[in-house]
Amino acid sequence: MRFSHFLIALICSISGIPELAAEVPRISLITCHAGPEIYELCGHSGIHVQYPESGIDYVVNYGLFDFESPNFVYRFVKGETDYMVGAHSYQAFIDSYRRQGRKVEEQHLALAPDQAERLVIFLEENLKPENRVYRYNYVLDNCATRCIDIIEKAIGDTITFDPGSAEGTEGWSFRDEMRHYHRNYPWYQFGIDLALGSGIDHRITIREKSFAPEMMARLFAHAAITDSTGTLTPLVSGTDVIYNGAEYPAIKDPTPWYLSPASVCWVIFLIIAGISIRNIRNRHQGRMTDTVLFSLFGLAGCLIFFLVVVSEHYATSPNWLIVWLNPLCFCGAIFPWIRKNGNIPEYYHILNFVALFLLLALWRLTGQGFNWAFLPLILSDMMRSATYIYIKRTCSKIKNIA
Q1: C-alpha angle with apex 143: 51 to 36, nearest 5 degrees?
Q2: Which of 17, 135, 276, 386 has its CA 20 to 30 A from that of 91?
Q3: pTM of the predicted protein model
Q4: Residue 263 and residue 218 in one domain
């Protein structure tokens, strides 16, 4: 028995599946449509390997991760996102999505026998303990892109995608595609827009759009490969709906319009504007307001600074929001409580106001996508700096006159 067959036999024996006989495998792509959890919004992909005569039937899944691994949360934030590949019995894999009520489709790949055999060999190589862990990347190296890579490796050529299959996505960037799949989860997208910089805002190719499993299934439906005669032939010979569940997820906790990021942030702006007007009339700096607001900005700034400077995550740097959110924001929270600080606070607020004004004025030149919920927050920041400068200078003039 070939070593690769032995490895599959071992995997299948663990799963309670009969041992492999010498036959050509049938290969297909399994696409599980989106679920309600935020990490399920783009769907999930797996490669289905079946030996009908032998009864061997399993799915190779590149989307496994271990929450129990040491320092998982810190390492994930830092960008050390180690995922794993694993093999599951086909029925167990499908049942897990059926229980969630998620639609599952299967696209049968029209591979030649030698191509199907090579694909199985490559899958087995990935499944070896020393190879099964890989550094996950949300848009460049995930459960979907790994499937494409290994299929192309097996056929010895690149998959040809039909531009018409991506109709409606012309000019999309990675961020645009994320927003499409996250459209019902505005706070999740707000966090992504906060954390990820301009690296996800360039125009992407049709192939790059396949980082989302649901999009990949859509592109595969009209994709082609080169056969032995050099002719383009369809990659998919047929599609089956394994479980006709929900194609789009039911939102777990729908966000009403008045609790959307934009609504909440504009309310914050109105509150800050009201406080600032009162402070100007009373010639009172409003220390508590500045302490709370600039402390929150400073905390967010520490996260942005970490992602830009320390994290290994893709596209967290450059992030032009660091001009607005950075650890120096704590200065605005601390200065009001220091009595003898001279003109340093005023210089800080002048610099802060000018920097934020230039950030808004020149934002289009950065090439970075902008979440409009940021605008009222940036304006609130500018308003507090302007309020400080105005009161400081007004009080100084009064003292000079006196």
Answers
A1: 110
A2: 135
A3: 0.88
A4: no
